[in-house]
Write a structure and sequence with these properties.
single chain, mainly alpha, 91% helix, 0% strand, 85 residues
Amino acid sequence: MRFAAIALLTALVAPAAFAEETPSVKQDFKDAGRAVKDGVEEGYDKTKDATLHGVGKALDETGDGLNKAGRAVDGAGKKVEDKVE
């Protein structure tokens, strides 16, 4: 009798012990939230890098343009002085 009771108890408890955990909606939302956060952070980092590099290049090009303009203005000033004399 004791063996039968132990066997019956084991038969009832074993499936629950070996069964996979039921999916959790809360856990699914947490996983989805982590995935979105990781994607947003990665996209932000890539955009930031592209912006910084793009702005740096644009500033370099602007500086080159201003240097050329300064040389042209300096040359024009000398030409006007020459014409005045």
